[in-house]
Design a protein that fits this description.
alpha/beta, Urease, subunit C, domain 1, Translation Initiation Factor IF3, 5-stranded mixed beta sheet, 5 helices
Length: 172
């Protein structure tokens, strides 16, 4: 038990040391929207791919950021979480669910998902929960891994793989 606790403490302290040594970026927009209020003169510090501080510019500038990025004329919307998405689908007014799942190739659906992931990130969502690949097997896992490797831009993903659906739930 002592060994496990010691190993955990050592691993935690090594992680914390690596985090504090990692380069950080101070982002300074004209406005920052925190999901409830619009703030003027606020910014955020990002280290690796994690937001580590948000607040008034004066309090953030006391920290040692490696780089400062001025976002003049912009509003920053950090850290939104999309709670229910299907990156491998597109709107039903474009193509019905049946046609997407039964007639579109898996390659087309994956390419569309890559575009959707980029647009989701650009809309301010840094994390998304994708709730089923809707007939595309584990393609959502491939999208997640491609984002993590930096191959395509997108938010951090929590994925489900093939959807589990109750019998008759898609009857319209």
């Amino acid at each position: 038990m002592r060994f496990l606790l010691l190993a955990f403490l050592l691993q935690t302290s090594l992680f914390m040391a690596a985090q504090s040594a990692a380069p950080s970026t101070l982002l300074l927009p004209d406005y920052l929207f925190d999901g409830e209020e619009m703030h003027q003169g606020w910014g955020i510090i990002v280290q690796n791919d994690t937001i580590v501080a948000v607040g008034p510019k004066q309090s953030l500038q006391r920290r040692k950021a490696t780089e400062t990025v001025s976002l003049t004329g912009m509003t920053l919307l950090p850290g939104l979480i999309e709670g229910h998405s299907h990156l491998l689908l597109h709107p039903y007014n474009e193509t019905s669910w049946n046609d997407q799942v039964l007639k579109e190739s898996k390659a087309e659906r994956v390419i569309r998902a890559a575009v959707h992931a980029k647009k989701t990130l650009e809309a301010g969502f840094t994390t998304a929960r994708d709730l089923g690949s809707e007939g595309a097997g584990y393609a959502d896992v491939g999208i997640k891994i491609s984002i993590e490797k930096g191959i395509i831009p997108g938010p951090r993903l929590q994925v489900a793989g093939p959807a589990i659906v109750a019998t008759g739930s898609y009857n319209g």
